């Protein structure tokens, strides 16, 4: 019998755990699901005889290490800063590891030791990052095989609310880790545009509000995502002039979020414990002196009319209300997150939607060609969301193939940019409805 350790039973784990348990009988697997919440674990394993719950504190080595020692492979859906605990255990105990998060600097520094141990630490094996790497490299490698010169690569991805469940002015609801919304863009962004390396600070990321068209959905806005430049070597595109990875949102969302940033509501370095209401919070953050109305003051700061759509979006959140603040509110970022958890929560029957699009331009026989590859996937409901499917299934599929010897394991701290991984994994994901359509112009 082989044992799989899944660390994390949050929103994104539903499909992963379901996939592993559905294959457990045939493969003689035992699946340990570890989390700090017994309820979260039970909701995912649903009494399966092939699952074993483990309610632990992942930072507690005495609780964590025996589970890693027992496992044949470890899959982590923990918050990014907690992967390193499992990574150190896996290196010490000789276990392969799969995560869905970006490679941290601490994880990157383990690469030589992981290679020397002959282990695979496959990171960025979810949706974005994950499916984006696999499909992008599939396109790039197939294009390079026909001796074409790739001049531009743009990749867009977003977790959105499906049109039939879109009932608020922000056109957004939480389908994944809510805190990631608050911290989106905090580190700024770097990308390549027409041969120039550009750096965009946090304060300006949501300002440009550039758009792309997606068939059946109309225009979506995008903003640059983190450091695109670190993938230039990994994607092996030496002649490229434009290279951009970006996040998709509804255009109104980007305008509203830029206002949230300008008003200082994402700050973690302020103190809000003395404030009583949402209106007093906004008053304190914007320096309102009581002259006129708070709404007029905020509209003036944002340089919009009092009845502008942005003001309607802020009002819908309840920022001008005299409603009392929650008891625990250490700073503005925490206060904002608490408010958004209430206002942007998905109802049980709500459907989310994942959109991914690659735009690749290349020269072939002195002709400029543009290839657009698009995936639009809707979830079934809040539990079986498109986000959980696209984050969890790639991890589960790779784990099954590794345990069954169906893939050649790349050694080191890696991402899924190699054909030996993306070809078989994407073939299986296709059978689960994760499909891309291509258009060449």
Gist of the model:
It contains 16 helices and 16 strands. The protein is an alpha/beta fold and 441 residues long. Helix 4 links the parallel strand 4 and strand 5.
Number of helices: 16
Q: Order of strands across the widest beta sheet?
A: 3-2-1-4-5-6-15
The number of E-state strands comes to 16
- Please report which band the strand proportion falls in: under 5%, 5-15%, 15-25%, 25-35%, 35-45% or over 45%: 15-25%
What is the CATH homology-level superfamily of the largest domain? Dihydrodipicolinate Reductase, domain 2
The stretches of 5 or more residues where confidence is low (pLDDT under 50) are none
* Count of discrete structural domains: 3
Question: So what's the CATH class of the largest domain?
Answer: Alpha Beta
Structural class: alpha/beta
Give keywords:
seven-stranded parallel beta sheet, seven-stranded mixed beta sheet, Dihydrodipicolinate Reductase, domain 2, single chain, 36% helix, alpha/beta, 3 domains, Rossmann fold, 441 residues
What's the helix and strand layout?
Elements: E1 2-7, H1 14-27, E2 29-35, H2 38-45, E3 51-55, H3 61-70, E4 73-76, H4 83-93, E5 96-99, H5 105-108, H6 111-116, E6 120-122, H7 131-144, E7 149-161, H8 179-183, E8 189-193, E9 196-200, E10 210-214, E11 218-224, H9 232-235, E12 242-249, H10 251-262, H11 278-286, H12 294-302, H13 309-317, H14 332-343, E13 352-364, E14 367-378, H15 386-403, E15 412-414, H16 419-431, E16 437-440
Parallel strand pairs: 1-2, 1-4, 2-3, 4-5, 5-6, 6-15, 7-12
Antiparallel strand pairs: 7-13, 8-9, 10-11, 11-12, 13-14, 14-16
Helix pairs in contact: 1-15, 3-4, 7-16, 10-13, 11-12, 15-16
């Amino acid at each position: 019998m082989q044992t799989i350790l899944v660390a994390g039973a949050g929103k994104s784990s539903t499909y992963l755990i379901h996939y592993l348990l559905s294959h457990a009988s045939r493969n003689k697997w035992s699946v340990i699901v570890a989390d700090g919440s017994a309820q979260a674990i039970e909701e995912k394993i649903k009494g399966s005889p092939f699952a074993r719950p483990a309610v632990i504190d992942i930072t507690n080595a005495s609780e964590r290490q025996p589970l890693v020692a027992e496992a044949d492979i470890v899959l982590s859906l923990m918050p990014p800063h907690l992967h390193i605990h499992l990574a150190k255990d896996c290196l010490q105990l000789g276990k392969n590891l799969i995560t869905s998060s970006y490679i941290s600097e601490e994880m990157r520094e383990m690469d030589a030791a992981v290679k020397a141990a002959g282990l695979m630490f496959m990171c960025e094996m979810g949706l974005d990052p994950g499916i984006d790497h696999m499909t992008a490299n599939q396109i790039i490698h197939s294009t390079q095989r026909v001796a074409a010169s790739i001049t531009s690569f743009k990749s867009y991805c977003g977790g959105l609310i499906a049109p039939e469940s879109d009932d608020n002015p922000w056109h957004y609801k939480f389908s994944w880790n809510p805190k990631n919304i608050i911290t989106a863009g905090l580190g700024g962004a770097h990308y390549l545009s027409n041969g120039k390396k550009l750096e965009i600070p946090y304060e300006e990321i949501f300002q440009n509000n550039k758009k792309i068209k997606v068939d059946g959905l109309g225009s979506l806005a995008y903003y640059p995502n983190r450091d695109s430049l670190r993938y230039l070597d990994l994607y092996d595109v030496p002649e490229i002039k434009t290279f951009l990875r970006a996040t998709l949102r509804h255009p109104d969302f980007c305008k509203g979020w830029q206002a949230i940033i300008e008003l200082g509501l994402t700050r973690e370095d302020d103190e809000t414990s003395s404030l009583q209401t949402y209106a007093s919070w906004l008053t304190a953050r914007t320096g309102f002196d009581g002259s006129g109305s708070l709404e007029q003051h905020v509209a003036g700061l944002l340089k919009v009319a009092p009845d502008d759509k942005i003001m309607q979006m802020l009002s819908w959140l309840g920022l001008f209300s005299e409603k009392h603040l929650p008891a625990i509110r250490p700073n503005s970022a925490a206060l904002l997150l608490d408010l958004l958890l209430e206002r942007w929560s998905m109802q049980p029957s709500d459907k989310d939607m994942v959109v991914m699009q690659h735009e690749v331009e290349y020269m072939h026989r002195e002709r400029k060609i543009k290839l657009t590859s698009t995936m639009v996937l809707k979830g079934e409901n809040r539990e079986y969301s498109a986000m959980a499917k696209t984050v969890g299934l790639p991890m589960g599929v790779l784990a099954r193939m590794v345990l069954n010897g169906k893939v050649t394991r790349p050694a080191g701290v890696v991402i899924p940019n190699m054909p030996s991984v993306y070809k078989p994994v994407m073939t299986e994901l296709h059978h689960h409805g994760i499909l891309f359509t291509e258009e060449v112009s």
